[in-house]
Amino acid sequence: MLSDHQNGIPLFRFESLPENGSLGKLRAGRLHHAIFTRQGGTSAAPFDTLNLSVSVPDEKERVYANRRRAYGMYGRDTDTVVHAHLVHGNDVAQVTQANNGTWMPRVDGIITNEPGCALTMNFADCTPIFLYDPAHHAIGLGHAGWQGTVKDLPGSMVRAMVQAFDSDPAQLLAGIGPCIGPCCYEVGELVITAVHETFPDADDLFVAPVGEKRPFSQGNGPHFDMPEANRRNLANAGVQQIELSGLCTACRTDLFFSHRAERGRTGRFGTIFVLGE
Ligand SMILES: [Zn+2]
Prior knowledge:
The protein has 277 residues and is of the alpha+beta class.
């Protein structure tokens, strides 16, 4: 990942996704994307400071002010981006600018090939999935926690892009963003069983705890490698070019919100994926 800074707001970008044109001049470019951090916003603890979600009990005025700062870098605001009502499933919706300012109901993946369309989602440990089809100039943004991972949300996104845009999975560029990593993601029987039922080679998706016990750990259970599981989901769908962020949200609560590490009392960091004209 590349780290950058714009108007006092830190952000990360995938090295493999092209970033054309200058920020704020969308028409000059063809593609923009960002993973914001928790820094550079207006919210008070425990939502400090760049919380972009109204699904947590932060003050709404501060969330809207935060969105103006973050989305504003791309000439956007709440009403000129597409949102998704995330439900930990594997349904994917195709969207256009007609969906601006609305929450796509009950989907964890949104895709578009309409130039000018901007997709957003918010996270705090779940896996952000970015897909770009340079041949058909189409994008997808997804959200996979452990449930979306075992339901193969990333594969559903790839298949939706194949169907909607005639995308070739081998040509797609994929990014797996900051999420809770195998260093921190202790799981119980429910997750272990579900992963074994889904992945034929599941044993090496679990690692024994390493180093000091995390303060938020419940016990001494195995740790799930969720980013690697989603890399396999994408690879199984035919994607060959996959970049992993290498960043763990629970290790880096200085940079990101982490539902697990902060015991549920936290905000959500944002992502944006803009298809230029
Ligand atoms: Zn970690």
